[in-house]
Amino acid sequence: MKDIDASAFYALIPSLEPLRISDYLASEGWTLVERREGLLEYWEEPHSYSESEGEQYTYLLPLSYEIRNFERRLVEFLVELADFYDCNADGIRERLIKRDWDAVLVRVLSQEKSDSIGLFEARGVLEAGLKLVELSALHTANPKRSFSGPKGKVVNSFMRDYVLLGHTKPGSFVFPIFSVANPADGDIGSFSREVMENLARGLRGARSILKGEARDKGQENRKFELALLNTVEKLSKLPGSTSFDISFLWASARPAPTEVPRRPIGFDADMLESPSSSGRIRETATAMPIEPAVGRRASESSNDITSRGPIVALGIDDRWSEGRESSHFIVIRVSEGEGLRDIRIPVNEGQFDRALEARKSRMPVVVEGALNRNGEVRYTRIVFPSDSLRLELPSEFDEKSI
User: Fold this and answer.
1) In terms of C-beta density within 10 A (0-12 exposed, 13-18 middle, 19 or more buried), how is residue 87 classed?
2) Quick one: which of 232, 223, 237, 180 has its CA closest to 203?
3) CA 213 to CA 220: how far, in whole Å?
4) Type and span of the H or E element at 245
5) How confident is the model at residue 389 (pLDDT cuts 50, 70, 90)?
6) What's the rounded Cα separation, in Å, for the pair 384 and 345?
7) What's this model's pTM, rounded to 2 decimal places?
8) How far apart are CA 111 and CA 16, in angstroms?
9) Across the beta sheet with 31-36, what order do the strands follow?
10) Does residue 164 contact residue 178 with C-beta atoms inside 8 Å?
């Protein structure tokens, strides 16, 4: 083994998942000799690399963070891997991370100091990068939705578990944000790749708005591009950032996407702040139709619940309200499949009076809420007939079915 500085490999540990290293070895033709489930694995070099004679070398890959001296053992494995591939710590990181992850790179180009960056500015770049990916995830999950309100299970899971910050790269501070793209991750891997492709196309469209280029886009895409542009504008207002570009690296585990920008998408403060660009943004936004509030809320999230039906009972029950906000309640009857179901919902005194009027007029009311983690509905708002206001319901109550 050649002399390799092991200290540089410790910095890789936070961004390397042992099971993903195992997946990489399997995809590269390494042979799994032995596995102790959840603890460690022993691997042999690919036969195409091995010597025709002599005993094969075995590599120990620790899997559990609970193993004694886990970090030291993992670093020893990484050093051995670097020796096998004849590379350094950066080379191993590129092999193990870039294969399974797409990356969006936000590069701040104009800096007064080349060896440092203000913490406030760094935070702003990270927040903007995260927001860009989140907007694309929301658009990918439902192109017709608005960009406010609940995100839904798919987007929340994706942003929480499948988006990572990589090590900054040299060259005027490049912030790499990784998104899993391994086919082994099934539906979430496909969703993640689509998120990054949509982000690349959306940013190209956002830049075309600034340049005044005519593009025949659907309303949903244009709304998405404007949302991205709003976030990009915030980047230009960070102290010290006069220009920046955004580019993409595509995981080798999936075929490289077609029809996405191959060169960095550049922005600068002068372009974003010029009167002509601002005018084009306003004109584009003004031309967008406003989506009705009711239709918009229905598409925001699969967790959102809207129930509609007549009031079939209402009353006051002091026993039910002990320690609660209200003793008043109403019961509405809603359709469920081929049958009907009665739902008991708490209301305050003012809403109770409105409910009396609604019942007399035989007009249905609408209640809105969401599923909680236990699969129960928690109604939070009520809309009475001929009333566009959504009134908050008492907060402590979950759904009560009669």
Assistant:
1) middle
2) 232
3) 18
4) strand 243-249
5) low
6) 14
7) 0.54
8) 30
9) 31-36, 40-44, 58-62
10) yes
